[in-house]
Amino acid sequence: MFTGIVQEIGKIQSIQSLKSGIALEITSGQGPFSLGESISVDGACLTVTQAHAASFWCELSPETLERTTARQYRLGSRVNLERALAVGDRLGGHWVTGHVDSVLTLSKKEVFNDFWKLTFSHLPETLRAFFVEKGSVALNGVSLTLNHVDSDGFDVMIIPHTLEKTTLQFLEPGNTVNLEVDWMSKLIVQTVERILKGKV
Prior knowledge:
single chain; 200 residues; mainly beta; Elongation Factor Tu (Ef-tu), domain 3; 2 domains; six-stranded antiparallel beta barrel
């Protein structure tokens, strides 16, 4: 479990092909890591398979490559990193599971002095029920507040601190991001739907 508060921007240092997936080495100053621990990489929950002084390795399955932006990674690609939430830590963002729901394309970026407004259109219909204005969403592992929601998509406002500390600063229209809807919203909506259909 994560909070959506990015701790560091890492960099892809090495990419190795596996029989059915890839392995990544990512630079990080957050170590030492433990083998088997979970880490959020651009919002996807991955497992540390090797740990070094200034980097770690993780393996990505075909499912992860299919459902996230990871298939676009190249040497030098920058990624948002967050270690798993420890009991007793502050929960500064919202509950983020690291299970990516969809990949979205940035349709519009508006700059208001130091603030950015990012608009995402063509939200999959299967996910629209989970979005409410002033609710939460995770984009590339960053916890954000939904600024506005309509029938086609949503927009978020990015503050200067978030731009400085995350890879959102590099986004341009046409770029893609990993989307995770609010876990609590998904749980509530799906439970109510099952009750209304008489399946509970």
